[in-house]
Design goal:
The protein starts with 10 loop residues before the first helix and ends with a helix. The radius of gyration is 31 Å and the shape is elongated. The strands form three sheets. Strands 10-9-4-5-6-3-11 form a seven-stranded antiparallel β-sheet, with no helix packed on it. By secondary structure, the chain is an alpha+beta fold. Helix 3 packs antiparallel against helix 4, helix 7 crosses helix 8 and helix 8 runs antiparallel to helix 9. It is built from 20 helices and eleven strands. It is 45% helix and 7% strand.
């Protein structure tokens, strides 16, 4: 428009022009990738595509057109909207005649709308959240939020609309409203916030592919994506700190001699404040299979190198805090044996309370099928958990496990089962062998969702019963199907896969000697009730008429060194079975990491450590 008062030159374009040295930097880059030539920038950031793979060039072309050409032009339209707005009246202010400045310049909102169009594109469709067919910057924000756990209004989820697009479109509405009433300069700070948000997916893209190149031996495709994402964001970092901008380009450019994810991550993080963004908004690289951030790839300020609580010095590769807490059942039994209360001992032994805590509800007949793992949130209590198992339409009883945290000291917020209340003077806590009812489900409506989508609202009919799904007794009574009895392929109570090691060697020795699958339970239960073991094989013992001292020692050591002991071995065996399920014969052949297909292997191994310690 070439008007006095226009904001030319525009700030964001100037950053990129100053860095690359050319007005048509985006075209030079895309065109070079198309013809397999050099960018020939007069400034920094040159890349040469001669001799590079089709995979690399393809990614640079696809993402360059979307995230450099169209991206900057969207920002241009937002700037132009402010200029058009100011053209409505002198200084863009409503004068005393009651004129609406923007009525003289309808181009302002039109330019603003053009910016939205170039950021989003037609393929996203009319609805919030868009469509996976989208190809412009809007879709990039949606893809990256799942990768970095930055979806949702709080930027802390792996599902739902991206935090970037939620915030951006709120600001777009604010800017539009201000333009309509001629508050032109009031739109500028809104635009600065918008541009900051728009930069986040570009940072996430660079981090994602720096990690893939450095930690996962990424090839041409990954190097192409890393290079183009860096090209789309480095000028902004360079504007904040030239040294950090140069470092990023050195590690991410086409033909980079090496790429260090740690160096790239640090160079970005030092400039977040300058770019008006936060660690939480950028997030970290999320490992969906393990439900945690990749090692050393979490949001800045969060140490993810060893994200699970260590167990006696052992660093688990998965979350087993709930499994590790089973020894609190053992401790509760030992406390009940101080002044022996065999009835209480029997209940703790068989019903537990400290491991796999869940709430059992009587509910109105289900109007929808519930699946194991569906998310459950109490509408009154705010307590979160997961559906315990599959439930059919019309079911009137359901169980919901309580959410377990990574920290052993505070691993659960509610546990009860057969546990006793904490003695007078002791404060209940998760890591104590007593009832702990800090945050429990209530008599309330339960909101059930699956992958972020509402499934059902379930109405409880009274307070739930808080129970435990993992017990010392169960370790023995379930042992037969988990370690010995064959199904059509493997152990019928476990994964039942061809190639599983069922029946397990160590368990078989004990089963053959005692003659019973539940030999450990028969022995412990006989000591509790002062009866006979009744083994069908060898090793029978009769505790009738025996002293409390004798029975107490058998109970304490039987639960720990027979029930828990053998189950720990079972988990180690199961880990091997899970690992073998990753590839044919469990052997790395074509460079595939078999265990990446079966993360359950390390989890089962960690469970074994938890039950041993």
């Amino acid at each position: 428009s070439n008007r006095v008062g226009d904001g030319c030159p525009y700030l964001d374009f100037t950053m990129y022009k100053s860095y690359y040295g050319d007005m048509d930097y985006a075209d030079k880059l895309v065109s070079a990738a198309i013809v397999a030539g050099s960018t020939r920038f007069t400034g920094k950031g040159n890349m040469d595509f001669a001799g590079t793979s089709d995979k690399l060039r393809l990614e640079v072309i696809k993402k360059g057109t979307a995230y450099m050409n169209a991206y900057m032009y969207a920002i241009r339209e937002f700037e132009d909207a402010i200029d058009d707005c100011k053209a409505g009246c002198a200084n863009g202010i409503v004068d005393g005649s009651g004129q609406d400045c923007n009525s003289k310049s309808s181009a302002a909102v039109h330019a603003w709308d053009e910016g939205v169009a170039f950021y989003t594109g037609s393929l996203e469709g009319p609805a919030a959240g868009g469509n996976t067919a989208g190809v412009f910057s809007y879709r990039l924000a949606e893809k990256r939020c799942a990768n970095f756990k930055t979806c949702g209004k709080q930027s802390n989820s792996v599902s739902g609309v991206s935090y970037v697009n939620i915030q951006l479109f709120e600001k777009l509405s604010i800017g539009q409203a201000k333009l309509l009433v001629g508050q032109c300069e009031a739109v500028r700070p809104v635009l600065r916030d918008m541009v900051a948000l728009m930069s986040i997916p570009l940072i996430q893209g660079t981090l994602r592919y720096a990690y893939k190149i450095d930690k996962m031996a990424g090839g041409g495709k990954e190097k192409g994506e890393g290079a183009i994402f860096a090209a789309a964001i480095v000028p902004r970092v360079h504007h904040c700190n030239p040294g950090d901008g140069d470092t990023l380009m050195k590690h991410m450019e086409v033909g980079a001699s090496s790429t260090s994810f740690a160096v790239v991550k640090a160079a970005f993080e030092k400039n977040y404040a300058c770019m008006n963004i936060t660690c939480q908004e950028v997030g970290g690289i999320w490992n969906t299979a393990e439900n945690k951030y990749f090692a050393n790839a979490g949001p800045c300020g969060i140490n993810t190198g060893a994200s699970w609580t260590t167990i006696a010095g052992y660093q688990p590769g998965s979350k087993v805090t709930d499994h590790n807490a089973l020894d609190l059942d053992q401790k509760a039994i030992e406390l009940a044996l101080l002044q022996p209360d065999y009835a209480a001992v029997g209940k703790i032994y068989s019903e537990g309370g400290n491991s796999k805590a869940y709430a059992q509800f009587t509910v109105d007949a289900l109007g929808a099928v519930l699946k194991k793992g569906d998310k459950v949130v109490g509408s009154t209590s705010g307590v979160e958990g997961k559906v315990y198992q599959d439930y059919p339409l019309g079911a009137t009883e359901i169980k919901a496990t309580y959410t377990v945290s990574d920290n052993q000291q505070s691993y659960v917020t509610c546990k009860e089962g057969a546990l006793s209340a904490a003695p007078s003077g002791q404060t209940p806590a998760a890591d104590k062998p007593y009832k702990y009812k800090h945050k429990c489900f209530q008599d309330e409506v339960l909101q059930v969702t699956r992958s972020g989508v509402a499934v059902a609202s379930v109405t409880a009919k009274g307070l739930p019963k808080n129970k435990a799904g993992r017990t010392l007794k169960g370790f023995s009574t379930k042992a037969g199907d988990l370690m010995f009895n064959k199904g059509d392929k493997g152990c019928k109570g476990a994964s039942n896969r061809v190639g599983d090691g069922c029946p397990y060697l160590d368990y078989t020795m004990y089963k053959n000697y005692y003659g019973d699958m539940d030999y450990a339970d028969k022995l412990v239960s006989a000591a509790i009730t002062a009866g006979s073991t009744g083994f069908t094989g060898k090793g029978n013992m009769n505790f009738a008429g025996k002293s409390d001292q004798l029975r107490i020692e058998v109970i304490k050591k039987g639960t720990a060194y027979m029930n828990a002991y053998m189950y720990a071995i079972r988990e180690f065996e199961d880990a091997i079975d899970d690992c073998k399920a990753g590839c044919v014969n469990g052997v790395i052949g074509s460079g595939t990491d078999c265990n990446s297909k079966s993360s359950a292997a390390v989890h089962a191994w960690d469970e074994g450590v938890a039950f041993y310690t």
